[in-house]
Amino acid sequence: MANILVIDDDDIFRDVLVSALVHAGHSVRQATNGVEGLRMFHEQPAELVITDIVMPEKEGLDTIRDLRREFPTARIIAMSGGLAHDPRLYLHMAEKFGAAAVLAKPFNLAELNQTVNAALAK
Fold first, then answer.
1. How many CB atoms lie within 10 A of CB 96?
2. Which CATH superfamily is domain 3-121 in?
3. What digits encode the pLDDT tens for the residues 88-105?
């Protein structure tokens, strides 16, 4: 399967997401924010990056923009719950910044697997 980098500041959500991806057969590394995620991607590029949008230190839109600038072929899935705002606003911006796919939190495992498989097939 694929080597995936998950970037999300919510420890519980990230752990569940990583567990689901590992259960699906993927090798997964994890970061708590965009700064850490970019550093990890530089050290060892992943086949797919799944990043949250709203995070401390370096949020997801900046992370997507930087990945796209430095690694134009990087496959990226953006996800957001949007806090008080409609998550579609953040996810629409993520697509404009270069995310190949988006997931609105909460999402189920079938949606996750379908989106991951589609992004990896591109």
1. 11
2. Response regulator (3.40.50.2300)
3. 777 888 999 999 999 988
Q: Is the pLDDT of residue 73 over 70?
A: yes
- Contact call for residues 72 and 83 (beta carbons, < 8 A): no
Environment class of 23 (CB within 10 Å of its CB; exposed 0-12, middle 13-18, buried 19+): exposed
Please check the confidence at residue 83 and state whether its pLDDT lies above 60.
no
DSSP character at residue 106: S
**In angstroms, rounded to a whole number, what is the distance separating the alpha carbons of residues 50 and 48?**
7
What 3-state DSSP class applies to 33?
coil
What residues does each domain of the chain span? 3-121
